[in-house]
TrEMBL record:
Membrane topology note: Multi-pass membrane protein
Extent of the signal sequence: 1-21
TM regions (residue ranges): 275-299, 357-379, 399-422
Taxonomy, superkingdom: Bacteria
Native organism: Pseudidiomarina halophila
Record protein name field: Energy transducer TonB
Amino acid sequence: MLKLKHCIAALALVVAAPGMSQEPVNLDQLLQQLKAGKFAQSQANEEREARFRAEAAQQQQILREAIAKRDQLEQTSARLESQFEGNERDLAALEDALTQRMGSLKELFGVLQQVAGDTASNLRNSYVSVEFPGRSDALNELAEKMGSSSKLATIEEIESVWFALQQEMTESGKVSEFSTEVTLANGEKTTKPVIRVGTFNMVADGKYLELIPGTDAVAELVRQPGSRYLDTAEALEQSNDNPVRFGLDPTGGSILGLLVQAPGLKERIDQGSTVGYIILALGVIGLLIALERFVTLTLMGGKVKRQLKNDKAQQDNPLGRVMAVKDKYPDVDTETLELKLSEAILREVPRITRNLTFIKIISVVAPLLGLLGTVTGMINTFQAITLFGTGDPKLMAGGISQALVTTVLGLVVAIPMTLLFATLNTRSKNLVHVLQEQASGIIAERSERGH
């Protein structure tokens, strides 16, 4: 019985009307509340049903209006489609009539469109546009107008194409000077006088300029060509209307761009890496030794020649020191004198031939070091091929450069060292030959006096 009361109380709380907040105290009150809640719920349902019936009629009206509008739009669409088809037929007929009336002029306007587009592209990359900016804009507009629609060019537009071509041809044969903004190699911008040589090159302050792609602005080349070309640029600026020699690029900058990319002497030496530096160091050492030997043997040869004209022995030259042996041993026999003279000559030979062997060694070692650099460079090249393949030649350029540069450096050092060794060795042998000749004369003279 108690459980039944609890269930009825819970049910009453669920279905009670919203305004009934008082808790029932007995079963009679609970029954009254249930009756009131049922009545309120029935009244709410009736109101919703009435509202739904009213809205159903409104929805039917909206549906009828939408159907009517759809029918109207379908009629409009059919009428427009019919009108569009008629316009298409009329347009095709007009185009056929236009084509028949134009005749060969259609090909003319097609060529005009192509020429206008090509000329605009050429003018954008022309040095003349720096002096006369904005020349390509009108030609671009003409080409786009004739390409995007069937509009024909006017007489003025046709004349503008002819004028642009004639101006380009005329300016290509002129050397013009004007002022414009130039971007320096350090990024700064300044206005300065510029000399334009036709459509080929531009120079300012003795330096070559390049046209910035897609603009009418110019900038200094970050890397300038060799001094012989820069000298011609300076001569052009100082010519005062006199003919001068000038380094002209007929391609409008393409060859000049490739020329400045070529590595200089220092860059080529750097490509030789460590082996190249060692070869050059040996070459410098050998050159210094050869210079010292050349000066020493020249002075020594002059003293020997003076000694040949003087019977009195001088101690400042090898021949004088050899001749002094005769005076030192005036009473010895011929064989003893011969041995003494040979000893004196052998004592002078190291002074005469000093360091010549080192020069010869350098002439032999230099090409071997070059071969070592070549092998090392090829090893680096094959390693790059193994890692990255042969798709990009720039990856192999470093090893190939080292291989070739070290070979060249080795030959550059070896050839002069070989020639210097041959020259100095000949001079030293001549001096030794003079000593031997004079010693033989002394022995012969002593022998005759003994007899």
